[in-house]
Fold this protein.
Amino acid sequence: MPGSSDLWYVSPYRELWTAGGGAEPIAPVRRRPTAASCAAELRTRQYQQVAMADMKAGGWACARTAEHNVVAVRIAAIPPRGDENAPLDISYTVWQQ
């Protein structure tokens, strides 16, 4: 359920959203972030979602959780187009603020 987790993947649209339908910011980043660099990215670039069409396997995104912590998300693998049942393979690190 979208409101019950900090990150959710909408497979038909191939997008990664934050809690509450994008209520918290999320932004793609170029390299593995730190807590400070994630927080800085989220102050300057805030999106409601990250489209997988704009990402590559091994890419990173930063987001804010519903508890206002910062999370770095690594996109390990992106499901192929047309496979709506395939999960998005991610790993993440959460830094408490």
Q: What stands out?
A: Strands lie at 7-10, 15-18, 26-29, 49-51, 60-64, 70-77, 89-95. The first helix runs from residue 19 to 22. The chain is about 15% helix and 35% strand. The helical segments are 19-22, 35-44.
